[in-house]
Design goal:
40% of the residues lie in helices and 18% in strands. With 271 residues, the chain is an alpha/beta fold. The strands form 2 sheets. An 8-stranded parallel beta sheet has the order 9-8-7-6-5-4-3-10. Strands 1-2 form a two-stranded antiparallel ribbon. Helix 1 packs parallel to helix 4.
Length: 271
């Protein structure tokens, strides 16, 4: 896998970097959660902005009329300050992909563009599929290119909260994501058995061979916890831990996850 440097950290095979999602619903909650995150084992902060947006009536209309933009920038400025140089991921997750509220592709992109333009984020995370389970290839290519013009990296994400998907389907999606310009490809599925979790880890190895960019591949749910720890050995470069509140099934606390990573990769960070 080809390493990717974001700010002062390098995404590469080995011990994965810990990202903590921030899920506050107002400025004060967001700031408080950020403070708690940076006081623990946190490499990356992810602002799950859909939790904040869930409080806004007529969301798409509010975005179109730029009513939410000033508060988005104000919150990002505070997050960037508290992060103290850590990379910040800006994420607006759609309703069918585990987000708090349905949002149109156009609105999600408009907010991602504003975040990227502010220079207060390092990465934006964009859903691979729209709310109806499809995507417009040309539109997405243009959106990703526009985000890159601001010097910001892009994660393309696919989530399946019902089941796992085949190795062939994952390999195909990752290939599509890379062809569309994703800097990091994220696949998160639900596993029901430890065997499915182990197979997912092996699938990670299959998509990180050669001079390819980073991936995040993990399993949600109790039986998928192994992927949040062992995935790094096979090239999954970021793992997610809960701060104040878990934002996906199977997320462990940052402290517990860090302890498991210490044991698995040794305390000096090497296998």
């Amino acid at each position: 896998m080809k390493p990717l440097k974001i700010k002062d950290i390098v995404l590469e095979p080995g011990r994965p970097k810990i990202a903590i999602p921030i899920s506050g619903r107002n400025f004060d909650e967001i700031a408080e959660q950020c403070e708690e995150a940076v006081n623990g084992p946190c490499d990356i902060i992810e602002w799950r902005a859909d939790y904040f947006l869930n409080t806004i009536e007529s969301l798409d209309e509010s975005v179109e009329k730029m009513k939410v933009h000033p508060e988005i920038i104000r919150i990002l400025d505070e997050i960037d300050y508290i992060a103290e140089g850590r990379p910040v991921i800006f994420t607006v997750r759609g309703g069918t992909q585990g987000g708090e509220k349905p949002i149109s592709r156009k609105s999600a992109y408009d907010l991602a563009r504003i975040a990227a333009q502010s220079k207060l984020v390092t990465i934006v995370d964009m859903d691979f599929f729209e709310e109806n389970g499809t995507f417009n290839l040309q539109e997405m290519l243009e959106q990703i290119e526009a985000i890159h013009e601001y010097g910001v990296k892009v994660i393309l994400s696919y989530h399946n909260f019902r089941k796992t998907v085949s190795r062939e389907a994952i390999v195909s999606m990752v290939k599509q994501m890379r062809n569309m310009g994703a800097d990091i490809c994220k696949i998160a599925v639900t596993t029901e058995t430890k065997e499915e979790g182990v197979d997912l880890v092996k699938t990670t190895a299959a998509v990180t061979e050669g001079d390819q960019g980073p991936v995040i591949i993990l399993a949600m749910g109790e039986e998928g916890k192994i992927t949040r720890v062992a995935g790094g050995e096979y090239g999954s470069c970021i793992t997610y831990a809960s701060g104040t509140k878990a934002t996906a099934p199977g997320q462990m606390s940052a402290e517990h996850l860090s302890e498991l990573l210490d044991k698995f990769y040794n305390k000096d960070g090497n296998n």
